[in-house]
Amino acid sequence: MEMDILREMYLRVSQMNGLEEYRTKILLLQKSYAKEGAFLEQLNEVKSIGENNERNDIQRKIIEEHEFRFSRRSKTDPLIMYFLEGLRKNKIDEMVLHLQVLDDAIANNIKKSKIVAQLAEEVRDKTTKFSQRLQLSVTDSEYAKQVELSRKELTVAKENRNNAVLSLRHLWREISLFYSSGNSGEFEDLPQRAAFYLIGGETLELYDGDANMLNVEWIAAIFKNLESLLPQKRIFVLCVLGEQSSGKSTLLNTMFGIRLPASVGQCTRGLTITLVKTIERQEYDYVLIFDSEGLRSPEHKGLCGSIKRDNKIATLSVLPSDATILVIKGENDNALKDILPIVALAYKGSKLAEEREGILSCKFFAAYNQVKADGENQKKLENIFSQLSTTLVESFTKTNSLRDLDVHTSIKFPQLLTNEHDIWVFGCNSKGDSPLDVPNTDFSQKMVEFREYIHKQVVSQSGWNAREFGNLEQYLSLVWDCLNNSDFDLSFETVIERHAYTELENKYQNFRKKYYEEYEEQFNLLKDKYKEDYSLQEGRPMNFTEIHANVEELEVKMKPQSEKFEEDVNLMFEEKQNQKWKTEFSRKVQDTIFSATNQWCHKLEVFLRNQFTFGAKVKQYEREMRDEIAEEFRSGNMKEKTEEQLIEMFNRIFGNIVKRAKEENPPMDVQNAVLKAYRTNSTIASLGIDLLCDNEKTILMGETLE
């Protein structure tokens, strides 16, 4: 009876029309969730800028997506009904079988779809076009536009292909949002059913690789149910990290006897978890496996945000784990060398590290896959192993030297492959040529030995204890906070360079500040000296030659400080890694010396002119005015004058002085001077913009000249 029901479901789903549009037209909750993920990314980018209006607008959009999901929860769709029917089976094995048949039926439908085939072909064409343009050694702007156009076309093609592919994973996402978008009674049992699914040995998505989101409420509810269903059961968390098609799923399947999808290309999206019951382990009862999407995948190569995606997935995989296996296909381990230090950097700058006193408890192991470790290749491999270990240790050490992070916690990490036994080499998992190949029993046996080695190395660490599900749920929330407060846009090499440059810039600014302060000090000393030495009583203005000589004195006195400034900055580039910026900073020094000299010499010249040229003339007119007023008093008729007559006398004397001063020192025609300077400047003239004057003789910006 049950098999007849499953057979009927398989046939109906296999023949359903329009599954290619299912994710864009039916599964609207996860479409909304992906929008929220994009808005959260935007919010993280603007939160430190202080743009309140922009931040409030993004937060409003996030709230709108929440409200949309709350209002649109529905389980009336046929596929969702099939899914919920299987999920609520009383027996775990019946649940697993029902959902597997449903997944197979969906896969069969999509496989036969002509629309999906056309979209896949379009991706191949756009990929070829984009790769061909990248290989051309052309650097002009038109070429750059064509490359960017090809990149955008490829992005759109991949998104269209991705949105047309449907699997059981997408139904899981939708029902998880049923729960987290509003926990009404009809969905309260979903986390428990998901926990049963995990206990049955199946795989669940932890991190949505399309929305780049972790549904914290849903995952927390699942772990709480696991804690209730498996009380006081202890878990060992194992993470597997590597590039796409490096053999991660094959490794896990062989080590633990599970059945994760394994093929050439992308099998896992985002991050999934699988629960494996252990046998005769005293230290823990279950192994919780974190299987991550392949890093540096061709699907995301060259696309915006691909570096951030890999860095976030790696961080979410490694930080909660007791052990991480770095799976490396062949000899190319460059991606791991770049990504793992970013994980350490994100951890260092988090409250998580602060709470754990900087202890990064995950122990690392390396598995070089599909490699021959015999004969001449053995020595080459030993050199590669040494380089990997050295690079990781140096990179992790560098993260502790970066001082401009908000949280200054030094990372305390376990040995990073410094023990040669932590690095294992595996051949192929089969012998012979397809289709006549057979399983390689040596490969399987060695994988089991590798599993046992990891177990012994981790549990033998001082202070190590297995966690329970409740502890892990709390820890995952902290890890997610860490991810949301970290900058994952840059590669580790770029981050290190950025920090090195920032340190140089800070040192330079300190030298520059000191140099300006020394200029100011010399300026004040000379100013005080001139006030004392130059006699104003004679009323003699300081001539141009005297002013120029005094200004030159300031420049001469500052020459030793200028040379010291250059010397201090040059010393910053004794380290080889800083040499690339020496020319740039040398130019900055010369610009600073030129600017400071002009600024302070001009300031001294203005002071001298004001005090000993203009000031001397003002004092001369003041003396003449006092002499005329004294002469009026000596005439002897001042007592007979009324107050009005005295005011009239003062205004007459003052007016005559002002008139004569104006005749002797005619005012500058500022308006005409500005217009002349503006209109004779070749750069401004090339813009074709004129200055006009209104009726009140105010200078206005004019229209562009025809």
Q: Quick gist of this model?
A:
By secondary structure, the protein is an alpha/beta fold.
What does this structure look like?
With 706 residues, the chain is of the alpha/beta class. It folds into four domains: 1-26 and 77-184, no CATH class; 189-490, P-loop containing nucleotide triphosphate hydrolases (Rossmann fold); 498-634, no CATH class; 668-706, no CATH class. The chain has 25 helices and twelve strands. Strands 1, 2, 3, 4, 5, 6, 7 and 10 form an eight-stranded mixed β-sheet that branches. The protein has a two-stranded antiparallel ribbon with strand order 8-9. The longest helix has 53 residues, at 582-634. The protein is elongated, with a radius of gyration of 38 Å. The termini are far apart. The model is unreliable at 263-267, 403-411 and 700-706 (pLDDT under 50).
Which features would summarize this protein structure in a list?
eight-stranded mixed sheet; 61% helix; 706 residues; alpha/beta; 9% strand; 4 domains; Rossmann fold; 12 strands
